[in-house]
DNA sequence: CCGTCTCGTGACGGTCCCGTGACGAGCCCC
DNA sequence: GGGGCTCGTCACGGGACCGTCACGAGACGG
């Protein structure tokens, strides 16, 4: 579930954007100021950021620049001002797109999709099926094979495995996994991750007590080793 | 000089776009039909494509889809129709952006720049692995290799090594290391650092008694030599 | 050469982290 | 409504890890 961060000071617009984009399948967080947006993005990096230009305190341009320094997350400006000068300035600051309020949700959603396609894939179509030793993951089919026999994973276990697989070899903290698997808005107990990791291991590891792929990195989180 | 292909049937608009974008530093080719555009792109692949939607013969949507099949060149639609339905359809077909005529050249140019930045830049960011002789440090994976075998570090040892690595060659005092590894608010015994340095050496040094990289600077602190 | 200071290291008790089993709630399909 | 499946919470136990201390070796200055 892609994570989207909305930075917009108008409560009504923020809420309506949030609802519309949640319908589109995004896990949304929204904040009313640039400062809060930066803090939020630092704590929970988003896959996409929507930012207004006219904000109290730090303005949208500075917000864009600051986020650019943090990473290359796609940024879309949603502004009331239909002015070439603003568009150019926002894009120069590091934004990827600029749409004018009032926005058609369908168009915004299409632009977000286009941007995500461009930002993530960079062209190469993924081989869709990934192997980790004896574990074979087929996201399309929703299947997992251990050796040559299929194992049944619950939805949560499956998504957990997918998220780990998307970042193979990299450590993901419990909080990151909560964000990605359970969604932004869930402030659950981090121990919840442990339980599902355990359940996942019992299904995809030959020796769950000594996992070969779903590894614990003590004090940091979990990772999937190739 | 980035190569830009313009597919636009209106001669006057095509020419003016061409001149404007040549001024912006693009090497421009222009054609009046989708068929010619595809042929041109096949013969001389462009870095960027501008496509009109209303074209005689094959229309812009088909042109976009056909180009998408050829590669992942960034495509910008330049259309007279300001209609959400068209925007969505164009983006779904594979376009990266959609601007409405008459276009402000400055804005178009800024959008092209933003798109090129995104399209090229998404090539992997630096691998972030650092080497110090036989010691290889992979912060993302939470791993450390000595030679080609992985050594297990505890969280504290790992952070300690990372902090030293961040300031390679510079001496860090015990207090600085306490601040960075254990946090500002911890007023622990400075000797604590010694203990962990020792433990670290036993794991990442071939001869812990005569360390080659994790060095003591008597009276000052420790440093990591490259 | 000797006293003092600094650093390395082994041992040990306490703490925190993680794995796991148990349990109840919600959900869906018979 | 019952049974199976999945999920989230909790508590417990074991072990990894940490911080402290003490002792000894080596470095440095006089």
Overview of this structure, please?
With 226 residues, chain A is of the alpha/beta class. The first copy, chain A, is 42% helix and 20% strand. Chain A contains eight helices and eleven strands. The first copy, chain A, has helices spanning 11-23, 34-43, 60-70, 84-93, 105-121, 155-166, 174-182, 191-204; strands at 3-7, 27-31, 48-51, 75-79, 97-100, 130-132, 135-138, 143-146, 149-151, 214-217, 221-224. Chain A has a five-stranded parallel β-sheet, sandwiched between helices. In chain A, helix 6 (155-166) crosses helix 7 and helix 6 (155-166) crosses helix 8. Chain A starts with a strand and ends with a strand. Chain A binds chain B through residues 72, 74, 84, 87-88, 91-92, 95-98, 104, 106-107, 109-111, 113-115, 118-123, 169-171, 217-220, 223, and chain B through 71-72, 74, 84, 87-88, 91-92, 95-98, 104, 106-107, 109-111, 113-115, 118-119, 121-123, 125, 140-142, 154-155. Chain B binds a DNA duplex (30 and 30 nucleotides) through helix 8.
In brief:
Two copies of one chain form a homodimer. Chain A has 226 residues and is of the alpha/beta class.
Helices and strands in order:
The structure is a homodimer of 226-residue chains.
Chain A: E1 3-7, H1 11-23, E2 27-31, H2 34-43, E3 48-51, H3 60-70, E4 75-79, H4 84-93, E5 97-100, H5 105-121, E6 130-132, E7 135-138, E8 143-146, E9 149-151, H6 155-166, H7 174-182, H8 191-204, E10 214-217, E11 221-224
Parallel strand pairs in A: 1-2, 1-3, 3-4, 4-5
Antiparallel strand pairs in A: 6-7, 7-8, 8-9, 10-11
Chain B binds a DNA duplex (30 and 30 nucleotides) through residues 154-156, 188-189, 191-192, 194-199, 201-202, 208-209, 216, 218-219.
């Amino acid at each position: 579930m892609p994570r989207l961060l909305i930075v917009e000071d108008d409560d009504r617009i923020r809420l309506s954007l949030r609802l519309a984009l949640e319908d589109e399948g995004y896990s949304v967080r929204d904040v009313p100021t640039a400062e809060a947006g930066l803090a939020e993005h630092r704590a929970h990096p988003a896959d996409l950021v929507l930012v207004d230009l006219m904000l109290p305190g730090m303005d949208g341009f500075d917000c864009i620049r600051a986020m650019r320094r943090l990473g290359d997350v796609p940024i879309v400006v949603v502004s009331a001002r239909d002015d070439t000068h603003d568009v150019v300035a926002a894009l120069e600051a590091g934004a990827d797109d600029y749409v004018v309020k009032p926005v058609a949700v369908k168009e915004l959603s299409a632009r977000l999709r286009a941007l995500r396609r461009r930002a993530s894939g960079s062209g190469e179509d993924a081989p869709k099926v990934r192997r980790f030793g004896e574990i074979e993951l087929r996201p399309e089919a929703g299947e997992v094979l251990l050796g040559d026999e299929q194992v049944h994973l619950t939805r949560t276990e499956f998504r957990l495995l997918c998220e780990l697989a998307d970042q193979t070899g990299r450590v993901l903290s419990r909080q990151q996994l909560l964000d990605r698997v359970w969604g932004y808005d869930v402030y659950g107990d981090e121990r919840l991750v442990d339980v599902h990791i355990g359940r996942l291991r019992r299904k995809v590891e030959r020796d769950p007590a000594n996992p070969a792929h779903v590894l614990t990195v003590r004090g940091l989180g979990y990772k999937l080793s190739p």
